[in-house]
Design brief:
The complex is a heterodimer of chains A (473) and B (443).
Chain A lengths: L3 H24 L8 H4 L13 H9 L5 H21 L6 H8 L2 H4 L10 H18 L3 H13 L9 H16 L4 H9 L2 H6 L12 H11 L9 H10 L3 E3 L10 E3 L9 E3 L2 E3 L5 H12 L2 H16 L4 H13 L4 H9 L3 H4 L7 H12 L2 E2 L3 H10 L23 H13 L5 E2 L30 H10 L7
Chain B lengths: L4 H8 L17 H24 L8 H5 L2 E7 L5 H4 L6 H6 L20 E2 L5 E2 L4 H8 L3 E8 L7 H10 L12 H8 L10 E4 L13 E4 L11 H16 L4 H16 L16 H14 L6 E6 L14 H20 L6 E7 L19 E7 L6 E3 L20 E2 H12 L5 H4 L13
Parallel strand pairs in B: 1-7, 1-8, 4-10, 4-11, 5-6, 5-7
Antiparallel strand pairs in B: 2-3, 4-9, 8-9
The chains are: A mainly alpha (473), B alpha/beta (443).
């Protein structure tokens, strides 16, 4: 462990209490929906007194600190590290790339992947996600991939969705994760996986289907309070009529195809904007562009990002993010800057780790080797976050209370990891200090009872990972 | 939304034969008054026994409540109430659903799988729900039709949030769940650790903020994976680590340690007295029955079932709907059978965030609507009856794009059950802003 995080933390401690107090006070007025009376009913987060700024940074914008990351942040400084992460051009470890190359399901197009059993495809997709979170050196990029994967959530067990998810992950999420939101939304609207998941391929003249039309406004862009009406939902579905999938003989079945014969050629009006007749596929395309950079979209996305990365609403950061988003026509890098460089990253309240957070930060903290395979995925499922398997389009929940009722599965994961019972995952104890999982946070180990044997390194490591503090980031 | 004409309609709803007295007052219902009186005697007895055992018991009044259990099954995605309990007497129903309608109970032109089971002269039950039809016939199940919240967004998330927070719609109001508020308003000095459980891996919003609610998927797997000789030491260490913190994780850890202990006392050897479907709902209800039989102090169990967002290929005899309903019917039927006499202290509610549009769409499915149907089954239910202020299906009655208007507030059902069965007293805490009347659905 490098010594710099410790000393920085100690310097930081003095000034932090006041700052944390200020942040909490600001929190009371966060959401118009949350009245003070029931804010009190929420279960408390731990006091912020022990925040190590480097650990906090890596917990929020990476998947927890590894020793290499801590060294990198020390060397580059916070700003330098964030800038390099925003560029997302770090060379990846060849061993990691080799592991990814073995996942055939990632390489295939949606229309080809049917040769694999469904469960294999889901397993490989999850392997890829877990490997990337654990080993990628472009950690911020992977955090954004996680954010957008929840934002554009697709249930991998609906119909043939699993087979289309690798293309969606590649061409929608990863292609634009730090790019332009408008481009990402367009790619998503035309993604076979999304077309099928939210039934937009059923949408045709005289028989509109409102499912995607509603969710693109409620979840993907404007937000439920974004000012649209049921009438807008119905008009948007008319705009999308004729959007569907290739089904023709000897064609690349399952790719996006606009079918003019199924399109409603009449005029439409969405959010007060007039769509002239006979525009064909342009109805939907113009509407996607309009929704993508709508001011309500900027507000909605900024609110979501603050909840995800800061763990609370921040009027200052949200305002700055929304302005940057609109000014840059949806540049995700520009939009994220006010959040990434905000002092609130350190002063914001603790966030309860979601299961992926807990697992990956444990692996990174202990320097464990993993294949991301079935053994790890089984634990992830037990904790409630089997990837690509959240049925509803809103993605896995962010708020602390959704996750903390199931702590036993976390304890058992820690025991299994320490004892080497997770197939495909192993800790090299020769390289792992028993308290390596602490990485900069002082967990207090309970004192030994009289006559109790000293703890083995495994036992100590398990206790560290089971500690209440380790559940927070 | 006090200005919503729908709510005014609902306030006029009086065809269910209950007193017009406004806010729900448990003592006002005479049968219930008797129950409370009887429980006081029982409480005295229990208290003296408990003194011997060194256990702190609840103040009187709550003791009767501890005998009863509420099981809430939430059908996620908006279950189509017109498929669940079709209004077969309405011509408009048959016209709006040329492909998705069920035949009237006497209409032999339909196969058994597509013909409703008769509930009364107006409403039927989907044949896939036959086990529930049987319980209805025994007078232990009731159907509430045209029920829902006053959320008009037709968004799953808003509508679910409204219902799980116990509000008219998803606006201003507490963010914790209605069941969490019920549990805290009836909290006793000494809580049992298994007072509320949710089956699955995450907590539903209705239990959000509950201090002693846990999620579990299987009782037999609810243990620390260490050797028995290490277990005591590890639990002691965890108790030490989790003992001092005031944060949510520390709280959950402490609860979990108590549950681990309680669960060790549950009999897992006795086989269930019924065969449950091997599904999430089936397994969850089987485990719920174990907890009820185990008398561990369970009061509330929450189970979720997804898949109800049937925009396409909803089906009647074949399709999503009959598949889903078969699972519900078989799981609930097995649960009731397995409980045996314990059904008398168990009340089951099966609900969903909204119903679906009256007219079918072109993909043999239905889009998001407003009012739906729900079931109440079990002990204390005045069953064998469909409770509804049926609004009809004529165009001018339908809401927005053609949806069944809500004429019964879902909270009327839940509030009555809480008051009659679970000893709730302060309904304003559980359902702030609600001042409806009981339907008379409980005895």
């Amino acid at each position: 462990m490098s010594s710099s995080p410790i000393s920085r933390r100690d310097i930081f401690r003095g000034g932090l209490a006041a700052a944390a107090g200020a942040a909490l006070a600001g929190c009371a007025q966060i959401s118009p929906r949350i009245s003070p009376a029931h804010a009190a009913a929420k279960l408390p987060v731990p006091p912020n007194g022990k925040v190590n700024p480097d650990v906090r940074l890596l917990n929020r914008f990476a998947f927890g600190p590894s020793q290499a990351d801590l060294d990198s942040v020390s060397a580059k400084g916070t700003e330098g590290w964030l800038e390099s992460q925003l560029r997302a051009q770090e060379d990846e470890d060849w061993g990691f790339l080799l592991q990814l190359r073995r996942l055939d399901a990632l390489e295939n197009e949606a229309y080809e992947a049917r040769n694999f059993p469904h469960e294999d495809v889901l397993r490989q997709l999850q392997m890829a996600a877990l490997l990337r979170c654990t080993y990628s050196r472009n950690q911020l990029f992977e955090r954004m991939v996680e954010f957008w994967s929840d934002h554009f959530n697709i249930y991998g067990r609906k119909g043939l969705a699993a087979y289309r998810l690798s293309a969606d992950g590649r061409d929608v999420i990863r292609a634009h994760a730090l790019g332009n939101f408008s481009d990402m939304l367009m790619a998503s609207a035309k993604s076979p996986a999304m077309l099928m998941y939210l039934d937009n391929h059923f949408n045709q003249n005289g028989a509109p289907n409102e499912n995607y039309a509603r969710e693109i406004m409620e979840l993907h862009t404007l937000g439920v309070d974004g000012g649209y009406t049921q009438k807008d939902v119905m008009e948007v579905s008319r705009c999308f009529s004729g959007w569907g999938l290739e089904t023709g003989f000897l064609r690349r079945k399952g790719t996006f195809k606009f079918n003019p014969e199924r399109h409603d050629t009449g005029t439409k009006r969405v959010l007060g904007r007039y769509f002239p007749p006979n525009q064909g596929v342009k109805d939907g395309e113009e509407m996607v562009r309009m929704l993508a950079v709508h001011p309500a979209t900027a507000r909605h996305l900024s609110r979501k990002a603050c909840m995800r990365f800061l763990g609370h609403r921040s009027p200052t950061v949200e305002k700055a993010m929304a302005a940057a988003f609109l000014k840059s026509n949806g540049s995700i890098r520009d939009w994220m800057r006010p959040l990434l460089f905000s002092s609130e990253v350190i002063t914001a309240p603790a966030v309860y780790k979601r299961p992926v957070d807990l697992i990956v930060s444990s692996l990174r903290g202990t320097g464990a080797q993993t294949d991301g395979g079935a053994g790890l995925q089984e634990r992830l499922r037990d904790m409630g976050q089997p990837l690509y398997q959240w049925p509803m389009p809103d993605g896995y929940p962010d708020d602390n209370d959704a996750w903390n009722s199931n702590i036993l599965a976390r304890w058992n994961f820690a025991l299994d990891l320490a004892e080497g019972r997770i197939s495909g995952t192993v800790i090299n104890w020769a390289n792992c200090d028993a308290k390596a999982a602490l990485l900069g946070v002082d967990y207090e180990m309970p004192p030994l009872a009289p006559g109790e044997k000293a703890r083995s390194p495994k036992h100590t490591a398990a206790l560290c990972l089971m500690a209440p503090d380790f559940q927070w980031k | 939304m006090p200005n919503d004409p729908r709510q005014r309609d609902w306030n006029l709803c009086q065809d269910v034969g209950v007193p017009k007295s406004a806010p729900i007052d448990p003592a006002a219902l005479s049968r219930r008054g008797l129950l409370v009186t009887a429980s006081l005697a029982a409480a005295g007895l229990a208290a003296s026994r408990s003194a011997l055992a060194g256990v702190t018991f609840a103040p009187e009044g709550h003791v009767a409540a501890t005998q009863n259990v509420l099981v809430v099954v939430f059908l996620r995605g908006g279950a189509d109430g017109l498929s669940v309990a079709p209004p077969y007497f309405e011509d408009a129903y048959h016209r709006a659903r040329p492909n998705l309608r069920l035949g009237a109970p006497s209409d032999k032109a339909f196969s058994d799988a597509e013909r409703a089971i008769r509930l009364d002269d107006r409403f039927g039950l989907h044949p896939a729900l036959a086990p529930i039809g049987e319980i209805f016939r025994q007078g232990k199940a009731a159907v509430v039709q045209a029920v829902g919240s006053f959320d008009t967004t037709r968004s799953h998330f808003e509508a679910m949030s409204a219902m799980e927070r116990g509000l008219a719609n998803d606006g201003e109001g507490p963010s914790d769940g209605w069941l969490a508020r019920h549990l805290s308003s009836t909290a006793r000095p000494s809580e049992t650790p298994l007072r509320a459980v949710s089956f699955g891996t995450t907590m539903p919003d209705s239990l959000r903020g509950a201090l002693n609610a846990i999620s579990l998927s299987s009782i037999s797997d609810y243990r620390l994976r260490v050797d028995e000789d290490m277990r005591a030491r590890l639990e002691r260490e965890l108790a030490k680590m989790y003992g001092t913190g005031k944060d949510a994780a520390s709280h959950a850890g402490n609860e979990t340690l108590k549950v681990l202990q309680a669960v060790r006392g549950i009999d897992l050897k006795t086989k269930p007295k019924a065969e449950y479907p091997e599904t999430g709902l089936g397994n969850g209800l089987r485990e719920t029955a174990r907890l009820i039989h185990g008398k561990v102090g369970l009061e509330v169990a929450c189970l979720d079932m997804g898949g109800w967002d049937t925009h396409v290929t909803q089906g009647t005899g074949i399709g999503w709907m009959p598949t889903l309903l078969t699972e519900v019917g078989n799981a609930v039927g097995a649960f009731v059978k397995d409980l045996g006499p314990a059904i008398d202290r168990t009340t089951i509610v099966v609900m969903s965030e909204f119903g679906r549009r009256v007219a079918e769409n072109q993909a043999l499915g239905t889009d998001h609507g407003r009012a739906g149907a729900l079931f109440v089954l079990g002990g204390g239910v005045r069953g064998g009856k469909v409770y509804t202020d049926w609004p009809g299906l004529t165009r001018e009655i339908l809401d927005g794009p053609g949806d069944l208007p809500v004429t019964t507030d879902y909270r009327a059902v839940l509030a009555e059950i809480l008051a009659a069965r679970l000893g709730a007293k302060d309904m304003t805490a559980v359902f702030p802003g609600f001042n409806g009347k009981p339907l008379g659905i409980t005895m």
